[in-house]
Input
Amino acid sequence: MNPKQQRHVEILTRLEAGALDVATATELLGVSVRQLRRQRVRFRLDGMAAVIHGNCGRQPANRTEPARVAQILALAGPEGQYHDLNTCHMQELLAREEQIVIGRSTLDRLLKQAGVRQRAKTGPPAHRRRRLRRAAEGMLLQMDGSPFHWLEARGPKGALIGAIDDATGKVLFLLLRPSEDQVGYLLLLRSIAERYGLPMSIYHDRHTILRSPKQATLEEQLAGQTPMSQIQRIMAELGIEAIPAYSPQAKGRIERLWGTLQDRLTKELRLAHITTLEQANAFLPGFMERYNARFAQPPQDPAAAWVPLPAELDRPYYFAICETRKVGRDHCIRFAGGCWQLLPGPKDPSLVEQRISVHRVPEGELYLYHGKRRLAYQAFVAPPVAPPQPASQASPAGAPVVRKSTVKQRAWLFGQP
Output
């Protein structure tokens, strides 16, 4: 069965088990109540075979015979007498001269599948309209990453992650990373939010770091949830509108910025004798100031649209990579290859068998939360294993080994050592 049929079986199975009601099942399957009733009866009788169409695996009645297809391709091939005829003319001559009756669309499909005819060229490029700048600074940001040999042959290749304001053309953030990763975008969002505030919206491409390609599972559909990447989740929680671009031209302002920086920045890095990414990142703030003084424009509306961060905002909760873990009976969780012991207070409720969120900030520190309440924790370190005792210090053969715990237990039970 294909994935669609498997999903159909899962929904019908949950419906029979009482986990779904009829209204929800009809909405998920996209059928009427009457159609669902018929499918439910067939599913009870035939099982999973009920969702497979009866024509599945059968040869279509209107299939063109292979011998007829070979005859047509021989006539239309490079050596055939109809090699330079268009499809409509060939259809007419085949019916009149060769007594081969075939539809024009079928003939066209067979010729293209065999490579005898080329597929039609795509149409002219789409007409695009110039988009006006936003009126105020902070209304729209464009962010992207540009992998390039920024250090030329002097150092490793890196990805420059940056953001530009749409209203002014001011570069707000630049950071060189070994590759385009979510830590770089996380640092971008946190740095801009702390220095300027939260923007109203961000224009970005459809990179999987910025927009999850996953399809919603059945449980997520029932809960009304949409799969999100980490950066997508952070923007949604902060109230930032995320606008995915469907072409590079849609976010042309930052694309043109990369062309300018690949010309100017590489040469300035060369003149500064910079050979490492760390040195380049220390050089970038001064370069941004000079660039903005030269190219930034004043906005139409002088009142900026930035939303300042509240002083009491828990920054590690929002500007962090978040994963969930289930608390064990010993109030421990497993994360990143380690064991972490929760330290609940005397009046805190038990979190056994509950899910908590683990937030990792770009610097690597961990913060644990139950909802939005921060939890105290410490790393659980197992005691070291005692080395084996030398043979000279071992107990005599046949003598029982008496441990301290055994002695204490005897004293407690019998009142004697």
